Automatic annotation (TrEMBL):
Keywords: Membrane, Transmembrane, Transmembrane helix
Origin superkingdom: Bacteria
Residues annotated as domain EAL: 24-274
Record protein name field: Diguanylate cyclase (GGDEF)-like protein/PAS domain S-box-containing protein
The organism of origin for this protein: Methylobacterium aerolatum
Length: 288
């Protein structure tokens, strides 16, 4: 009897696996088509200085406008793209679209683009990025590439040589989600980062958790001693904003300042003349 039940469970499990595999295959072929047929789209999230609240630039965040399933977040399809070999074309699509968009801006704001660790398997990554910049007509100094700690861990020598070439071109490099991975302080020092982005897991808890506040202060100290700027991710409340201002964090990004949205929503900030303060406690305003 136990055996029969075991067989039955096994059958049900196998059927569920088949269904999941079929669903995955379908999503995979959908994604291949999406990249070719421009179903991907970018949302942009503002990054501002903590003290002056001046617009520094935007982070480009990819979304998939699926014809049947609606807007799919990157947490669903970026890992899929990484598993099925589509991350290279996806990554290039994002970079090309973001650079083209930034090239139309009348102020020299930064555009930050996320790179998958797998893109570092391409030894000619720096050359590919340069070709995309040239094609878009965007200066390399306007581009910031966001990478995670796993890039360093996978193949440190190759990553370092690619990052040095990117830096030599004038591109800046940010370490994303800092504090959630495993890299040591020594590796952080060995890498030519311009910025450290403190993960929102810590930023989001500076009010309630003394440990989170300690970690945020420690990362700010680290950034200062290594000569790297520090960006706080996921700032959602005025209290968090005040904490970061008091602690002299360089830049902030989060729902409090602005959610990721289509670039049209930010037109008046991007094309404003001179110094444009985009954020106050009342929300985004144009105080040029
Ligand atoms: P990330 O690079 O750390 O991006 C920040 C994520 O936090 C974004 O989620 C953003 O919408 C969200 N966020 C920003 N401010 C707040 C806040 O105040 N509160 C909360 N709760 N969330 C906030 P999103 O757009 O869903 O992206 C998730 C992740 O997907 C990104 O994390 C990045 O790792 C990856 N990703 C997004 N676009 C790309 C891309 O073009 N290429 C690659 N390789 N990865 C991407
Ligand atoms: Mg990022
Ligand atoms: Mg992040
Ligand atoms: Mg992340």
């Amino acid at each position: 009897r136990a055996k029969a039940e075991g067989r039955n469970t096994h059958r049900i499990f196998a059927a569920a696996m088949d269904a999941a595999a079929a669903e995955r295959r379908e999503l995979e072929s959908d994604l291949r088509r999406a990249i070719e047929e421009n179903e991907l789209t970018l949302h942009y999230q503002p990054q501002v200085t903590t003290g002056g609240r001046d617009l520094v630039g935007f982070e480009a965040l990819v979304r998939w406008q699926h014809p049947a399933r609606g807007l799919i977040p990157p947490s669903t399809f970026v890992p899929l793209a990484e598993e099925c070999g589509l991350i290279m074309p996806l990554g290039e699509w994002v970079l090309r679209a973001a650079c083209r968009e930034a090239a139309t801006w009348t102020r020299p704001l930064k555009i930050a683009v996320n790179l998958s660790p797998l893109q570092f398997q391409q030894a000619d990554l720096a050359e590919r990025v340069l070709a995309i910049l040239a094609e878009a007509g965007l200066s390399p100094t306007r581009l910031e590439l966001e990478i995670t700690e796993s890039v360093i861990i996978n193949d440190m020598e190759r990553a370092l040589s690619i990052l040095r070439r990117l830096k030599a071109l004038g591109i800046s490099i940010a370490m994303d989600d800092f504090g959630t991975g495993y890299s040591s302080l020594a590796t952080l020092q060995a890498f030519p980062f311009d910025k450290i982005k403190i993960d929102r897991a810590f930023v989001g808890h500076v009010e309630g958790s003394p440990q989170a506040a300690v970690i945020v202060r420690a990362v700010l100290g680290l950034g200062r001693s290594l000569g790297m700027g520090v960006v706080a991710e996921g700032v959602e409340t005025p209290h968090q904003m005040r904490f970061l201002t008091d602690e002299s964090c360089d830049e902030v990004q989060g729902y409090l300042v602005g959610k990721p949205q289509p670039i049209e929503r930010f037109t008046r900030y991007i094309h404003g003349a001179g110094r444009t303060i985009v954020w106050s406690e009342e929300g985004m305003t144009n105080a040029a």
